[in-house]
Amino acid sequence: MFKLRCIECNEVNDEKNYTCRCGGLLEVVYDLESIEIDFKLDGNLSGVWKYRSLLPVKIEPVTLKEGSTPLYKAERISKIVGAKVYVKHEGLNPSGSFKDRGMTVGVTKAIEFGKSAVVCASTGNTSASMAMYAAKAGIKAYVLLPAGKVALGKLVQALMHGAKVVGIRGNFDDALKVVKKVCEVADMYLLNSINPYRLEGQKTIAYEISEFLVPSRVFVPIGNAGNISAIYKGFYEFKELDLIDSIPRMVGVQAEKAAPIYKAFLEKKMEIEPIKNPETVATAIRIGNPANAKKALKAIYSSKGCVEVVSDDEIIDAQKLLAKEGIGVEPASAASVAGLIKLAEKGEIEKDEEIVCIATGNLLKDPEIVLKICGEPEIVEPSVEAVLSTIKNLK
Ligand code: F0G
Q1: What are phi and psi of 277, to 5 degrees?
Q2: pLDDT value of residue 242
Q3: Whether residues 1 and 89 fall in one domain
Q4: What pLDDT does 26 receive?
Q5: Which of 179, 231, 285 to mutate for ligand 1's pocket (most ligand atoms within 8 Å of CB)?
Q6: Which residues of the chain have a pLDDT value below 50?
Q7: How many domains is the chain built from?
Q8: What is the C-alpha separation between 149 and 125, in angstroms, rounded?
Q9: Whose CA is closest to 131, among 92, 93, 164, 161?
Q10: Which CATH number covers residue 335?
Q11: 244, part of any domain
Q12: Span from the CA of 229 to the centroid of ligand 1 (angstroms)
């Protein structure tokens, strides 16, 4: 039904491997011709498992009813960029980010392989999601985080759902390096996005978009570069299956000071040069050595897409703009919209385009940044005069 194949040397790997002997990333490939598709693209979303015939699991899934996220028409953003813009709000998944689509598959594979513990390095959302699904499955969860650099909402989720959390003196890239080594010596199942099964769940973002339209472009924030690769794979498979006619151009958006994939794209390369000290207000994508860079660059080049970079100010402006549309997101999510606005300002967006921006995580993930942007509310005496005079003076 499916096999794990190396994207570098094409070798078929054991189904429990994370990476190939040659060091290459692995990808789940299906014999698409022999698969019986048992769903219809009829606009009825029923979550990730609607697409079970294209997911690599053999047991009943560990699920919290993830997916089925809304695709909003963004009126104000459409006006600004002069095209039809939609936002897929992945922040409305059970743990508040798109990671749940991957974790329902990843944790199910952990159970299928008989594992009793899962582990990840994380900028926050992966750990929150993994902790939640591990709790649901009744297995142990271990999490390595860059100390002091994880948004509060994500940290409290990992803690409350019972993960054992360790802070690392270093950044995400350091944590990922360590966690890979930990998995060589301890019997823990690695659930970072180098795990090819996780990306299978995330490709359902593309499947759900295809229920309604095939946009000309899809904008995705890039951190460890798994999600953009997964979304491209989803569209690619649907095109191979003749379920859609074309593949959207994949546009990756990175934060200015955490942008190794942008640099590789400018130089038309497949290899990145890691950035030692990545920095951005969007802590979720504060990553200098994205593990899935090759898959992401392949997706971007194959779809005739591109990579854009955005500053912290542009990210925050886009976060505020999304909030005005009624869409509450954390900073990293807003990078997709910030990238779209930047491309539009360069005159690269055409009038009749239909565009989807992926909003990857919920506003509540990072409450501290909101207080920095908006300030704390004023406190007054409980009298009508005090309230009215304060409201009058509020900006
Ligand atoms: N947006 C959010 C809100 C994220 O949490 C992440 C990644 C991304 C975008 C980027 O996705 O890594 O697939 O390119 N967060 C990871 C984590 C790294 O540990 O939670 P990517």
Answers
A1: -120, 75
A2: 97
A3: no
A4: 98
A5: 285
A6: none
A7: 2
A8: 12
A9: 161
A10: 3.40.50.1100
A11: yes
A12: 12
Residue in the structure block whose two tokens are 């329902």: 104
Same domain, 286 and 346: yes
| Phi, psi values for residue 308, rounded to 5° | -125, 155
Which pLDDT score, from 0 to 100, does residue 389 have?
Answer: 96
Has residue 290 been placed in a domain?
Answer: yes
Asked whether residue 2 falls in the same domain as residue 89, the answer is no
Q: What is the pLDDT of residue 118?
A: 98
Place of tokens 């809304």: 70
Pocket flag, ligand 1, residue 252 (CB < 6 Å): no
Give the pairing of strands 12-13 and 2-6: antiparallel
User: For residue 387, what are its two tokens?
Assistant: 């309230």
Please tell me the predicted confidence (pLDDT) of residue 352: 87
Q: Are residues 303 and 216 in the same domain?
A: yes
Cα 310 to middle of ligand 1, angstroms: 16
The Å distance, Cα 285 to ligand 1 centre, comes to 6
Other C-beta atoms lying within 10 Å of the C-beta of residue 7: 17
| Whole-structure pTM value | 0.98
Is 202's C-beta closer than 6 angstroms to any atom of ligand 1?
A: no
Cα of 384 vs centre of ligand 1, distance in Å, is 46
Residue 130 lies in a domain: no
Element (H, E) at 145: strand 140-146
360 Cβ inside 6 Å of ligand 1: yes
Do 16 and 85 sit in the same domain of this protein? no
Nearest CA to ligand 1 atom 12: 224
Query: Based on the domain organization, do 24 and 77 belong to the same domain?
Result: no
- 47 inside domain: no
Rounded to whole angstroms, how far apart are CA atoms 184 and 258? 28
* CA pair distance 204, 16, nearest whole angstrom: 22
Distance from residue 221's CA to the centre of ligand 1 (Å): 8
Distance CA 38, CA 382 (A): 60
Give the structural domain span for 12.
1-35
Taking the C-alpha atoms of residue 24 and residue 272, their distance in angstroms, rounded to an integer, is 14
3-class SS at 28? strand
